[in-house]
Amino acid sequence: EETLRIRAELQLGPLDETAAFLLGDLYAARANHRETADLRRALQAFEDARLRYPRTENAVRALWRIGQTYSALGFSHEAVASFKRVVARHAESPYAAYAQLDLAELYRGWELWKEADGAYRTLRAIRLTPADQIRARLGSADVAARLGRYEEAYQMYREAEAHAREDARALFRYAETAYHTGRYGEARDLFLALFNIYPRDPLAPVAYAYVGDTLRIEGRTRHAELTYDDILAKPAESLGGTLALLMAAVGKRLLHGCAPIPSGFDDAPCRVEDTTTQDPHRLARELAAQARTLLRDRPSDPTLRRLVFDVATFLRGHGLFDIALELHHE
Question: Which phi and psi (to 5°) does residue 175 adopt?
Answer without folding.
Answer: -60, -40
